[in-house]
Amino acid sequence: MEKRPTLNGLRPTSRQGAIFGLYVCLFLVVDGVIVASHRVIGGVNVLPLIFMFCLWLLGLLIVLLDRPGPVRNWAGPFLVSLSCPYVALWYDGEAILHWARSAPLPPWHHIVLINGLLLGGFGVYFVRMYPRSCPSCGLRSLIPLLRLTRVEKRLSRTRWCASCGETLWKDAEGRWQKERRRTWVEASLARNCASPEHSN
Ligand SMILES: [Zn+2]
Q1: Which of 24, 77, 110, 123 lies at 20 to 30 Å from 61 by C-alpha?
Q2: What is the per-residue pLDDT across 47-105, written as a single tens digit (0 to 9) for each?
Q3: What is the chain's mean pLDDT, rounded?
Q4: 153 and 85, same structural domain?
Q5: Both 34 and 79 in a single domain?
Q6: Residues 122 and 24 grouped into a single domain
Q7: Which residue, 107, 129, 151, sits at the end of a domain?
């Protein structure tokens, strides 16, 4: 069940700080194991893959351990998506290193396709996920109102302010409008009000 979201803006909470501390510990353990064994397995340098795994790990920890709510649903997938530009830059770096060693570059259409998919796809996703300035409180904390487990098409343009709790959507003229439809956030608040034992 979704819990009542807190209005803390996009500043890290103490719980998120603890999650990050856990992540750093796990990262150091994983990195220490790799350094203690082999950085190159089967001729492939696995360190970049480990770093990519760590991006996924941080997003996964946020999803699993952070307080349920719109900020968690926004931050977890956003962190995981950072692996896309990372993989593109890693691929380009490896190609340049090969070229510097007088080895042939990968076919140009491979380079264009991989960069187009990973960087282009991430660019579109980044524009959608980037926080907008809230017209109600003036703070840049208006994030897409997402659910983790499904896509709600009727709320695909709806954003929720992590600072003031306002729910808004942008019309065709680019003006922010108050969301009139009931969202899962209001439904969650109503449930909590009706059932005090579920509130925090
Ligand atoms: Zn606001």
Answers
A1: 123
A2: 777 777 777 888 899 999 998 889 999 999 998 898 889 888 888 888 888 788 777 77
A3: 82
A4: no
A5: yes
A6: yes
A7: 129
pLDDT higher than 70, residue 36: no
Same domain for 148 and 98, yes or no, is no
Distance (Å) from CA 65 to ligand 1 centroid: 25
> 139 CA to middle of ligand 1, Å?
6
Segment 124-139 shows an average pLDDT of: 94
Average pLDDT estimate for 137-148: 92
DSSP string, the chain: -PPPPP--TTSPPHHHHHHHHHHHHHHHHHHHHHHHS-SEETTEE-HHHHHHHHHHHHHHHHHHHSPSSHHHHHHHHHHHHTHHHHHHHHHHHHHHHHHHTTPPPPPHHHHHHHHIIIIIHHHHHHHHHSPEEPTTT--EEEEE---SS---GGGTTEEEETTT--EEEE-TTS-EEE--SPPHHHHHHHHHHH-GGG--
Distance 92 CA to ligand 1 centre (A): 40
- Domain assignment of residue 9, yes or no: no
Tell how far the Cα of 57 is from the centroid of ligand 1, in angstroms.
30
pLDDT at res. 197? 43
Q: How far is the CA of 123 from the centre of ligand 1 (A)?
A: 25
Q: Measured in angstroms, how far is the CA atom of residue 167 from the centroid of ligand 1? A: 9
How far is ligand 1, taken at its centre, from the CA of residue 166, in Å? 6
- Span from the CA of 124 to the centroid of ligand 1 (angstroms): 24
Q: What is the pTM of this model?
A: 0.77
Ligand 1 center from residue 138 Cα (angstroms): 6
